[in-house]
Design brief:
The complex is a heterodimer of chains A (597) and B (587). With 597 residues, chain A is α/β, with parallel strands linked by helices. Chain A folds into five domains: 108 residues, Glutaredoxin, CATH 3.40.30; 209 residues, Rossmann fold; 84 residues, Ubiquitin-like (UB roll) (Roll); 90 residues, Up-down Bundle (de novo design (two linked rop proteins)); 56 residues, Alpha-Beta Plaits, CATH 3.30.70.20. Chain A has 23 helices and 19 strands. In chain A, a hairpin with a 5-residue loop joins strand 11 and strand 12. The longest helix of chain A has 22 residues. Chain B has 587 residues and is of the alpha/beta class. In chain B, a hairpin with a 2-residue loop joins strand 1 and strand 2. Chain B starts with a strand and ends with a helix. Classes of the chains: A alpha/beta (597), B alpha/beta (587). Chains A and B meet through helix 16, helix 17 and helix 18 of A and helix 2 of B.
């Protein structure tokens, strides 16, 4: 990055890549060539910037100008105006939604102000396909320190002291896990990177692998050295082609540089990494199921103990960590355990990456220190609720997390506090809901996911979750009976208490937490047969307001099932038995004579 | 030792003991459904999947499966607290909510583990109703799969893959659609299934059952134009009594003969007769090969493998087709009997073979398949027309309003009902090779064998080895029961590491006494041991205990067959094997 005067960083994350057809970098390069600037200005495709809501994103260095929603057609303008004339392209700058001012530098945007980027430190900064760029940002320095200075036990002690807890969902202390794997003697050991990210809407791990693959490689090598393993395996979803491509590329580069393979950095330590592809089963994110899948067996969990640290891949001691956990390792080694432990809370140190989604203004990937409150995340970083609607709930912890309400907004986000209020950290999904969301339907949505993703091994998860779903479906259809609510409670509790693995044990969480926090909504559905959010079709009625209806027959003509009767200039009537609730009548009425009750 | 408390009772157990095992020590029976363990036979299945055996452990947030959770020191367990009972009942209700309610007409009615569980837990209502799984029925020559009734205990999978190493059944699909099936949900016929029936033997519900031929048998018995002959395999008499509430290991040979006569069979014969015949043929083949081998013939193949067990025959045809020249070519006793009955006996009583119906009573499911093999029929008429299991026979007896207990002991008909002790022991692992040894010793050495009990060949270990002294010549014998054990011996032979002269192989754990058609043992291996004891007891009580001394066999050779291994014998009593791997791989 020395010889060029200016760099144009183009987001190469899956979202931006897709919405610009992957042509943005090409268009910028072409525009540079036309102006003959190709040797002075370099276009760099980086990993994800996180601000997916406003993608595709282009960042200009050295002046840090942050362009949003850039299309290939804008390339010429950026080159002509910004690069050549030094004038920022106003229309591509981010507009602050409150102050309505243009903001040129991401550092001043609310979305970035409260973030601390450790795991994502290189995403959106370096070219993930260039190992030199990673090295220039302290890459592989931690590995050198571990091999040359710390040795295995001190490395593990550093991780222990840092307080790093597993970012995949369980929150188990990483250093302790490493210690168990180290203590179990064996001729062969394995380290496994769990890149089977499966929560709907979550893309933390994918972004790290796409934006900074070397950090995972470096961390796994450190892990291998610390516990005495010579083989690393990355279990990655086959649906992540870009991440796979970059990871493979990075592994080859690391081999070329002697950072993987035999006798790494002349230390006498051998380590190499192989990829294993997952077919997209959510349950394979559970470590025992993941290991079985890698062994070619059916992806099903087995009862723990034995834990993988004792008997894992091929029956050998195995340490499994998630991508984000690994991404923290090199920084911890470089900056020291104390530095890391100072970030966040006492029992939850460091930062956490969240995929912020749902009804917030700023959808995207964020990394905040542990202890940041839900309010800060949703209203400051997230920019509040879309379209000025009212906040209703936030779901953390992916499909098995709980739904929290406005009374929980000041809860500091960390492993223990989220559990205390009936949810969990999970791997970092965070979905915000507004007043239009029906909480029974939300619970049903998540159950639908877990029913689909259950492996079917244990009864409570296989049949129980299916029955939970069916009861919720019945309620949203308006056929719920009061005893169904008792059934939901009992069944939810039994499934939690008796399921074999984490998937089943947490699957009823959305139901239990919404019942806890939105009880009146359930009651309304069951006793009044009403859905206040207006999202359960079977519970709402389109109704013609007699005073407003002029008898124009527009609604009757538009009705696809001919359920609206009434002569011209007479008040119309909707036959509720036939109505399919398509809403055409309401859309077509010019006199506001159709209402939903 | 670890000290724990279960329901307030202190228990001391060894490290590694599960809560379920520890509870048993103090007579607390935690109900289990998917769990299965056949002690001494290395069969253990505790996936912790059904969650019926969950218990409360102090300090643990969730309930824990007692069949897999190992005890730790100071553990405090409650096995029947209100919390546990509610969870357990709910789990069973969930299983029932996805199970058909045709119990009254189900093949497993009365012997179903799920039915018993619902009864024991006092379940009178199913609170959680909903969609039920539906699968098409899969019928093969021997086994019916009705997967609507599958509760995903996966015992069959363990038997098929881990114990038998057949690999026909495995879990497929996921979630509510999860079910055990052959690959790609093909029918069993298009899988490497050997029809050994061990899946049927361990299935807790009616999901896996044998193809029921008992109605065909009744129809044949009612047909005045037909002469109906029945043969009974040795292992049946050692287990049939259990179906009538008798103690395992009760020998009911005489009552069984009585019952068959009352059912209307024209001739009640014994497969043991054909077992004696098998020894003559197989023993001759063994001696021929052995003599050639001892005289330095490098071409001759040893060890010779027994071929009485149709599950085993299917197994090597499917999995070791390149080795089909090693097993003996002798047909199984069932088929030897069928062949002799349809040829020699039909002639004797001046009946056309089509008018003679041969029925076999077998402890086995694979025998149904064996009898249907094309090479064992003449112009479409099978040598054995129907093969029914011990369980099917019990149903027939019950239907015919007999009080089994008070039946008089009767003897088999002559001549095909006359047998020696050697024929009887075919019913247990090690029996065939012991019977063969008794005769082969005398034929080889020309000397009289005083002690016919070869204790070294008996037992329940999965693979056994023994040496027998043939008057200075050491004969090395191997025995395997369970196809997984057989595979190990076959791999050794393939690798040239085997120095056995003869190997006996039975597909089922324990041999025929543990066959897929026997009364269900519900995971209790003691039952198999008692049946084994009964078999040896019957042998010990026989006047003649060596096959070649059976006077009726001697007459058969003299009057009809000629020499053992002769031309006529080859035509009627030997067979050939096929490469079946191609069959299922192509389809």
């Amino acid at each position: 990055m020395v010889k060029h005067k200016m760099h144009l960083l183009v987001c190469g994350g899956t979202g931006c890549y897709a919405s610009a057809n992957g042509d943005l970098a090409k268009a910028l390069n072409e525009a540079l060539e036309i102006s003959g600037l190709q040797d002075e200005v370099q276009v760099v495709t980086t990993g994800c910037f996180g601000f997916c809501e406003k993608g595709p994103i282009v960042k200009v260095l050295p002046d840090n100008t942050f362009y949003v929603e850039v299309q290939p057609d804008d390339a010429e303008k950026i080159i002509q105006e910004h690069v050549i004339k030094g004038r920022k392209v106003d229309k591509l700058l981010y507009t602050d939604p409150d102050k309505k001012e243009k903001i040129a530098d991401s550092a001043h945007m609310d979305f970035y102000k409260k973030q601390i980027r450790i795991a994502l430190r290189n995403c959106g900064v370096i070219n993930p396909e260039d190992i030199d760029e990673y090295i220039s940002r302290d890459g592989y320095q931690a590995l050198g320190k571990v091999l040359g200075e710390l040795g295995p036990q001190k490395t593990i002690d550093t991780i222990k002291d840092s307080g790093l807890r597993g970012r995949g969902g369980g929150g188990f202390p990483a250093g302790l896990k490493w210690q168990f794997a180290k203590n179990n003697e064996s001729d062969e050991k394995y380290v496994v990177c769990n890149a089977d990210e499966g929560d709907p809407g979550a893309f933390m791990d994918r972004s790290i692998l796409e934006g900074d693959p070397h950090t995972v490689i470096e961390a796994m090598t450190i892990n291998g050295y610390a516990i005495g393993a010579n083989t690393g395996l990355v279990y990655i979803r086959a649906e992540y082609p870009l991440a796979i491509r970059r990871l493979k590329f990075a592994i080859n580069q690391a081999r070329e540089y002697g950072l993987l393979g035999e006798n790494i950095m002349d230390s006498g330590f051998d380590f190499d990494i192989q990829l294993r592809y997952g077919a997209g089963a959510f349950v394979c994110g559970e470590e025992t199921a993941l290991i079985h899948s890698m062994e070619g067996e059916r992806g099903e969990p087995t009862v723990k103990p034995p834990y993988p640290a004792e008997s894992g891949f091929r029956g050998k001691p195995t340490n499994v960590n998630n991508v984000e956990s690994y991404a923290n390792i090199p920084v911890i080694i470089n900056q020291g355990a104390d530095w890391f432990a100072k970030i966040g809370n006492k029992n939850s140190t460091g930062t956490k990456v969240f995929a912020l989604a749902g009804k917030v203004n700023n959808v995207g990937l964020i990394e905040v220190p542990m202890g940041t409150t839900l309010r800060e995340v949703i209203f400051e970083i997230g920019g509040g609720i879309k379209d000025g609607k009212k906040f209703k709930a936030v779901q953390t912890g992916g499909p098995s997390g709980g739904c929290l309400t406005d009374k929980h907004l000041d809860t500091p986000i960390d492993f223990d506090n989220l559990v205390k209020v009936g949810s969990m950290m999970g791997s970092g999904g965070m979905i915000v809901m507004d007043e239009d969301d029906c909480m029974v339907s939300v619970a049903k949505f998540y159950l639908d996911f877990t029913v689909e993703e259950s492996c079917g091994k244990c009864t409570p998860c296989r049949v129980g979750n299916k029955r939970l779903y069916e009861i919720l479906d019945k309620i949203t259809q308006g056929k719920g009976e009061p005893e169904d609510l008792d059934k939901l409670r009992n069944l939810g509790t039994v499934i939690k208490e008796t399921s074999l693995c984490g998937l089943g044990q947490t699957a009823p969480n959305p139901v239990i937490s919404t019942m806890e926090n939105f009880w009146e909504e359930y009651e309304q559905h069951v006793t009044d047969k009403k859905c206040a959010a207006g999202s359960c079709k079977n519970l709402m009625q389109y109704h013609i307001i007699e005073e407003n209806c002029v008898g124009c027959t527009a609604c009757a003509r538009k009705c696809p099932v001919n359920c609206i009767s009434g002569e011209k200039k007479q008040v119309h009537k909707i036959d509720q038995d036939l109505c399919i609730k398509c809403g055409n009548c309401m859309d077509v009425c010019k006199f506001n004579a159709v209402e939903i009750i | 030792m670890i000290k724990i408390t279960i329901n307030g009772k202190p228990v001391e157990v060894e490290k590694g003991t599960t809560i379920y095992q520890a509870a048993k020590k103090v007579n607390i029976n935690i109900p289990v459904l998917c769990y299965m363990e056949l002690e001494d036979m290395g069969v253990k299945h505790n996936p912790g999947g059904c969650r019926v055996c969950v218990v409360e452990v102090e300090g643990a947030a969730n309930l824990m499966p007692s069949c897999v959770t190992k005890c730790w020191d100071g553990m405090v367990v409650k096995t029947s607290s209100p919390r546990v009972l509610n969870a357990r009942k709910t789990v069973v209700e969930l299983i029932l909510s996805d199970h058909p309610f045709d119990c009254l007409v189900c093949a497993k009615n009365g012997t179903c583990d799920l039915q018993k569980m619902a009864q024991d837990l006092g379940i009178r209502e199913i609170h959680y109703q909903g969609e039920q799984s539906t699968y098409r029925e899969d019928t093969s020559p021997a086994i019916i799969r009705e997967m609507d009734k599958c509760i995903n205990c996966r015992r069959c999978e363990t038997m098929c893959n881990d114990v038998q190493t057949v690999g026909a059944l495995s879990g497929i699909n996921r979630g509510f659609e999860a079910v055990v099936a052959p690959a790609f949900e093909q029918n069993l016929e298009h899988s490497p299934c050997t029809y050994c029936g061990q899946c049927v033997a361990v299935c807790p519900t009616g999901a896996l059952t044998e193809v029921d031929h008992s109605n065909h048998v009744l129809r044949a018995l009612a047909d005045p134009k037909k002469k109906v002959v029945v043969q009974t395999a040795p292992a049946v008499r050692a287990a049939l009594g259990e179906e009538f509430g008798m103690e395992a290991g009760s020998l009911v040979t005489g009552k069984m003969v009585s019952a068959l006569r009352e059912l209307g069979f024209d001739y009640v014969f014994d497969t043991d007769f054909a077992a004696d015949l098998t020894i003559m043929e197989e023993g001759t083949e063994l001696l021929n090969r052995l003599n050639k081998h001892l005289s330095g013939d490098k071409e001759v193949k040893l060890p010779i493998l027994t071929s009485c067990c149709p599950g085993w025959v299917s197994f090597f045809e499917h999995h070791f087709p390149e080795m089909t020249d090693i097993p003996s070519t002798a047909r199984s006793p069932q088929q030897m009997f069928g062949s002799i009955a349809k040829n020699y006996f039909a002639e004797t009583i001046a009946t056309e073979r089509e008018d003679l119906v041969v029925v076999s009573i077998m402890p086995c499911v694979a025998k149904k398949y064996e009898r249907s093999r094309e090479e064992f029929s003449v112009n479409g008429d099978s040598d054995v027309n129907y093969s029914i299991t011990t369980r099917e026979l019990a149903h027939l007896i019950k239907q015919s309003n007999m009080d089994f207990h008070s039946l008089e002991d009767k003897n088999f008909d002559s001549p095909l009902g006359e047998s020696t002790g050697a024929g009887v022991i075919f019913g247990t692992t090690g029996g065939v090779i012991e019977a063969a040894t008794r005769s082969a010793y005398e034929m080889h050495t020309g000397k009289h064998l005083d002690k016919v009990d070869f204790e070294e060949l008996r037992g329940m270990e999965g693979i056994r080895e023994a040496s027998v002294d043939f008057d200075g010549q050491e004969i090395k014998i191997g025995i395997a029961h369970g196809l997984g054990n057989a595979r190990k011996l076959l791999e050794d032979i393939k690798a040239g590491k085997s120095d056995f002269h003869a190997i006996e192989i039975m597909a089922c754990p324990g041999g025929c006494i543990g066959g897929g058609g026997q009364p269900l043992h519900h995971g209790n291996s003691e039952i198999l041991k008692k049946r084994q004891k009964a078999i040896y007891q019957e042998d010990a009580g026989k006047k003649i205990r060596k096959s070649h001394e059976n006077p009726f066999i001697q007459n058969l050779y003299k009057d009809y067959l000629g020499e053992p291994g002769g031309e006529k014998s080859h035509e009627l009593l030997h067979t050939k094997y096929f490469d079946r791997k191609k069959r299922w791989i192509k389809k």
